[in-house]
Structure formats: C-alpha cells, structure tokens
Amino acid sequence: MPAAGLGLRLGGGLPKALRELGDVPMLVHALRSLLAAPGVGAAVVAAPPDGVADVRGLLARELGADAPVTVVAGGATRQESVSLALAALDGDCPVVLVHDAARPFVPVGVVEAVVAAVESGAPAVVPALPVVDTVKEVAAEDGAERVVRTVDRASLRAVQTPQGFRRDVLAAAHAAAAPGGDTTDDAGMVERMGVAVTVVPGSEEAFKVTRPFDLLLAEALLAKRRA
Ligand code: CTP
Ligand code: MG
C-alpha cells in the first residue's frame, strides 16, 4: 500500500494518508478495507519516510499489535514507494495487490474480484469503470486550448486500485522500470513489458481522495456507512 505521498493537490499540510476521515486516518480506513477481504493475508505499507515510527504506532493502536501489517519507508515517487514495499514482502505470496492508501473505501467485492482473477490465471488485473464525461483531446494554441478531437468514450475506462499481479510479473516490471521513474500506474509498467492486463468492474466507492472536494465525498460516504 503506497501511503508516502504528500497530498499536494489536497493541501492541508499533513501527508494525505494521515489525514483524518471521521477521526481515523485515511490509511487506517484503507487497510481495514483491504484486510476485510478473505483473500488478503497481509499488508506492507510504504509510509512517509520521516513518519515510519509514528505510522507503526498508529497502526498498532488502531488495528492491534498483531495485525499482519509491516511498515517500511516509502520513496520520493509512488513508483519508488511500491518498489520499496515489494522488496519488503515475505517469501510466500504469489499474488500481490497494489492499493492506494488514498482509496479508503474500496468495497471488499472489488478486492475479491481482483484476487480471484489473478488466482484464475490473469498475470495482471485492474478494476475499472466506464468514463462518464465526454473526453476531448486538446492542444495549446495562443495561450488558450483548442480541441483536437473527441475521443470515443465507449472504449475508455477509468482505472482504480487495488491492481492485482502475479508477484513475479510485478517484480519484473519494477525491476525493468527506470529507477528514478514516476509511473503512477503499476499496470502500465506491466503493459510496457507486453503482458496482458485483465479488467474487472471497479466501484464508485473505490474513488481516490485527490482534491478537497473528494474529502467531502469521503466524509459523506463514511457517515452513510456508519448510520
Ligand atoms: N504515494 C506514495 N509515495 C509517493 C507518492 C505517492 O506512496 N512518493 C502514494 C500516495 O500516498 C497515495 C497513492 O500513492 O496513496 C496515490 O497517489 P496520489 O493520489 O497522487 O497521492 P499524493 O502523491 O500524496 O498526492 P499529490 O499527487 O496530490 O501530491
Ligand atoms: Mg501524487
């Protein structure tokens, strides 16, 4: 679980994964959502590098000292954070999920669908939703933007996490990627190796908290779930 980002688009000073939703840091919600899936046995969190001890303490308090969660220092980019977490995985796990801490409310059904698809032979799996807005390609022109073309939305998908992989496939993709790279989509790295990526249905509840508006949505969803 990459959780080391600064959350610059959200603002507010605190690393995004540590921002609270209903008095609990987003990271805790995300871990609970993931660990609620029977197919998930353990998690490795890539925490903000200067906050590893604090995050260990937080998770011991919130999830219990014996929760199957390891915390390592994340990196300067998401790609690096995922690589560092992958390196800390223990020996026996042929299937690996990569899940953003910034998607705190992914439903168990989505997690299970991703795990099931990898277990039934897909080397890489992404949950995705159809794109609802009309999408246009634009180009800069005289300080403004001009439409180049309208993309056919029917074949477009907005991709979420958790993305699931055969562990050897994800490890190979990270090993092949440029070390200083900033790829924010693990499946994209696997695609570049020529590996097929399978799509399963995502969920609106798996949305990523990116901008301040998303916090409103997250708080509303949490209130509804707790009601
Ligand atoms: N992430 C990470 N390490 C980084 C950057 C991002 O582990 N160096 C994680 C974030 O913590 C988040 C996930 O990757 O859980 C998705 O990234 P994003 O939504 O872009 O989060 P931030 O990078 O924190 O936000 P921003 O890009 O607005 O700064
Ligand atoms: Mg980011």
TrEMBL record:
Pathway per the UniProt entry: Isoprenoid biosynthesis; isopentenyl diphosphate biosynthesis via DXP pathway; isopentenyl diphosphate from 1-deoxy-D-xylulose 5-phosphate: step 2/6
EC numbers on record: 2.7.7.60
GO MF annotations, alphabetized: nucleotidyltransferase activity
Listed Gene3D superfamilies: Spore Coat Polysaccharide Biosynthesis Protein SpsA, Chain A
This protein's UniProt keywords: Isoprene biosynthesis, Nucleotidyltransferase, Transferase
Domain of life: Bacteria
Matches recorded under PROSITE patterns: ISPD
Site (Transition state stabilizer): R9, K16
Annotated site (Positions MEP for the nucleophilic attack): R153, K208
Catalyzed chemical reaction(s): 2-C-methyl-D-erythritol 4-phosphate + CTP + H(+) = 4-CDP-2-C-methyl-D-erythritol + diphosphate
InterPro entries assigned: IspD, IspD/TarI, IspD/TarI_cytidylyltransf_bact, ISPD_synthase_CS, Nucleotide-diphossugar_trans
Protein's name according to its UniProt entry: 2-C-methyl-D-erythritol 4-phosphate cytidylyltransferase
